[in-house]
Amino acid sequence: MIDKKEFLLQSIIKAYIEHCEPIGSTQLKSMYDIRYSPATIRGYFKKLGDEGFLAQEHVSSGRTPTREALKQYWTSRLDFSLANVDSKAIQHLASKIGLSVFVLKDKSDTLIELINISDKYMVLEFTSFAITVKYSDPLFRFLKDMISIDIKGILKISQQVGALEVYDAVNQHLENRDFHIYNIKEFMSLALQYDYDELIINKFLKGKILEGLEEGLYFSGLIPEGYIAICHDCRIDGKQSKMFVVGELSKDYEYFYEEISII
Q: What DSSP letter does each residue of the chain carry, written as one string?
């Protein structure tokens, strides 16, 4: 059971997220039918303000949660056990709430066969696609040992050994994979406001930013102060995917996840 102070902090954060305006003690009491008196609520508001969890612009104004309070709130509230997600719901909710959502559908291809075409070309046949490169006997023998290795392994090894034609062909395929951005306008506004350089912008726009990301919350590094980024491994429209949600800390992420999830 949470104590009064924690209960009131969670209540005011919830109210602020729903209404996007400072919340007063009387307003909070009526919104959630809280049994404490406005004076008691104000007393706890002061304590929470002294601890750095609530801010007040003017003596007579309501309170707003600080960035630290919102970070702790989402850290304790967000669940990463997403199963199936609807892409149409993502598209609708991203625009409605004001989020940018980056979705990269997994390409778990492996090299299954290597075909020599008259000692001129060789075909690298993967699970769901094929690429063609110029034939060379050393490269053909080398790639024969790569059968059954996944596409990311092929990409890494070909770069390490200098098989640049193979690397470029595989990399080009990965760049054309199933990647989508929902509400790109919101991200571009963020990038311009915080003066992202061209390299970082391109990493987001080409999906490179998702490579190597682990599930979890991100409050800095990839995004500016006052924002949150959330990475999920889930199934979108039945396909295994990585989803990266970016938005201001004050957005309603619980509502977003409730609405996009398929039961």
A: ---HHHHHHHHHHHHHHHH-S-B-HHHHHHHHT-SS-HHHHHHHHHHHHHTTSEE-SSTTS-BEE-HHHHHHHHHHH------EE-HHHHHHHHHHHT-EEEEEE----BEEEEEEETTTEEEEEESS-EEEEE--HHHHHHHHTTTT-BHHHHHHHHHHTT-HHHHHHHHHHHHTSSEEEESHHHHHHHHHHTT--HHHHHHHHTTGGGTTPPSEEE-SSSS-TTEEEEEEEEEETTEEEEEEEEEETTS-HHHHHHHHEE-
